[in-house]
Fold this protein.
Amino acid sequence: MPDDVIDFDMCWAFDLADPWGNQYELNCYDYDRIKADLIEPDAITAVRYWPRELYEEHVRTR
């Protein structure tokens, strides 16, 4: 489901299970392209596991 997308500010993640119940996490690090081509056009609201402010601080102090 589109609301199962997770936004980690550095990558997008999607948790899924195959027909046998094995669980997987699909990660994509082409962040800007996924946002422009999939997230924004479909108005998907992704789950966030860490606040944007922490990410911006992390990037500033690198």
